Each structure stands twice: as C-alpha cells, then as structure tokens.
C-alpha cells in the first residue's frame, strides 16, 4: 500500500468539475543589468568566531544569477564562500579586490562600514 498522505497535505479538493488548483508561483525577481545594480561591499566579523568575511549586499535579481556572481568572485579571489539570503560571503578580507572585480563587470559599488 502506497502511503503518500504527506504529498496531499495542503491540497484543496472541490466538487466543482471546472475547479483548477492554483499553485503559489511567486514570480522570481527579474535580474537588473549590472549598470542598474547598486552593491555594497563590507567586512563582517560578527558571529564568525573572529574570522573576517567580505560581504556583498544589495543584489537585485534571481538566486541563480546571484550564485553565478558569487562563484565568479570566489574563483577570482581563490577562496571559499557562500551565497545565501541575498548576500554573497567571501572568506577573508577581500573588499578592495571584490570592488575591483565588480566594477570591471559593470556594477555600481560602494564601500560600506569601516
């Protein structure tokens, strides 16, 4: 016996023969071109056991485009990092290098924080 009751959670049933189930399809944010992006680059040490990370915020666009940008920055800096919650985290203090790379890609970049 197939016990797939979890798949049916949140499903709406109707006796109306013309009923169509509507899925919550949130339109993904459209990625702005680099010239219209205004990114902020800062160094962050909070909640990181004293280790520094370069933080890039302010990106407007799809998660895939943000991940692509994060991958490019990590590769060019030769370090690890992550992309989550609309932010790019690059391990280490690479603020100047990241700013140069983003400007070369056509982004508007501002230094944020000390």
UniProtKB/TrEMBL annotation:
It holds the Pfam family SUI1. Coiled coil: none annotated. SUPFAM superfamilies: eIF1-like (SSF55159). Residues 16-44 are annotated as: Disordered. Keywords: Initiation factor, Protein biosynthesis, Translation regulation. CDD domains: YciH_like. One of its GO terms (biological process) is regulation of translation. Residues 46-106 form the SUI1 domain. Transmembrane segments: none annotated. Gene3D superfamilies: SUI1-like domain. Belongs to the SUI1 family. This is Translation initiation factor 1. It comes from Tangfeifania diversioriginum.
């Amino acid at each position: 016996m197939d016990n797939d009751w979890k798949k049916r959670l949140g499903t709406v049933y109707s006796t109306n023969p013309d009923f169509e189930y509507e899925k919550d399809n949130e339109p993904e944010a459209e990625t702005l071109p680099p010239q219209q992006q205004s990114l902020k680059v800062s160094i962050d040490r909070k909640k990181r056991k004293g280790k520094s990370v370069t933080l890039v915020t302010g990106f407007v666009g799809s998660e895939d485009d943000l991940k692509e940008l994060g991958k490019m920055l990590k590769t060019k800096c030769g370090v690890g990092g992550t992309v989550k919650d609309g932010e790019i985290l690059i391990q280490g203090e690479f603020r100047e290098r990241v700013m140069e790379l983003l400007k070369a890609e056509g982004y508007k970049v501002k230094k944020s924080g000390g």
